[in-house]
Amino acid sequence: MSAQVHVVKQGETLLSIAHEHRFRSWETIWNHEDNQALRDKRPDPQVLAEGDEVHIPEKVTTPVEVVTNKRHTFVVKALRARFRTVVLDDRGKALANRRFVLEVGEESLSGFTNDQGVIELDIDPRPQTGKLQVFGEGTPPRVLTWNLKLGSLNPIELLSGVKARLTNLGFVCTPIDEELNDVTKRALRDFQIVHRLTVTGEPDDATRAHLLSIHDRR
């Protein structure tokens, strides 16, 4: 039987698609033979583009033998997404050891950034929006707030993927679309200057590669 085809919508990742189709592992879908072309096209399974086609394989059941006339407990592991971000101030300095609150769906998660300003924790893979608040020093503390679009990052091959990464790094070039306007060219030039790349104002291969290595590092 041929696999069902799921056409990716904006804001979806392989994790959210796996959850929608009731898979407990996104790797089961990703590694299916019918998804070879997608794997070749998109090296990161969690960064897909609208219109990409994901083949959903037929589920395979695994029988479990148990003793009758006894009570048994079965634990099903929930599918979770990994949220990771680095919080910097306007000078590029890490906001280290600062309290934060992350609201995603019905979850409210809190903690402290680490010494490098990193926040990393597991979240529900379904919500496409969230809010992050980081609390500064002082009384009352200054509160930095970001409204998040989860799963909406496009691949670096698309101009919208370039613009989103630049904007996340402080080189703002909204709106996040496929238009190479003057604002985007200026943001590209600024990024190239800061990172000592050849200044072209264009999303050339060297700029895309460097942007990817900085923004998507894990």
How many runs of DSSP E, i.e. beta strands? 8
* Main sheet strand line-up: 5-4-7-8
Number of domains: 3
Looking at the structure, the CATH topology of the largest domain is Immunoglobulin-like
Tally of helical segments: 6
Any idea of the CATH class of the largest domain? Mainly Beta
Strand content: 15-25%
The shape, in one word, is flat
Radius of gyration: 21 Å
CATH architecture field of the largest domain: Sandwich
Largest sheet: 4 strands, antiparallel
Order of helices and strands: EHHHEEEEEEEHHH
State the distance separating the first and last CA atoms: 37 Å
Q: What average pLDDT do the residues reach? A: 91
| Structure class | alpha+beta
Fraction of residues in helix? 10-25%
Low-confidence regions: none
What does this structure look like?
The chain is α+β, with helices and mostly antiparallel strands and 218 residues long. The protein folds into three domains: 4-56, Roll (Membrane-bound Lytic Murein Transglycosylase D, Chain A); 81-149, Immunoglobulin-like, CATH 2.60.40; 159-215, Orthogonal Bundle (Muramoyl-pentapeptide Carboxypeptidase, domain 1), CATH 1.10.101. It has helices at 14-20, 26-30, 36-41, 159-168, 182-194, 205-215, and strands at 4-7, 53-56, 81-86, 99-104, 107-112, 118-123, 129-135, 143-149. Strands 5-4-7-8 form a four-stranded antiparallel β-sheet, with no helix packed on it. The protein has a two-stranded antiparallel sheet with strand order 1-2. β4 and β5 form a beta hairpin. α4 packs across α6. The protein starts with a strand and ends with a helix.
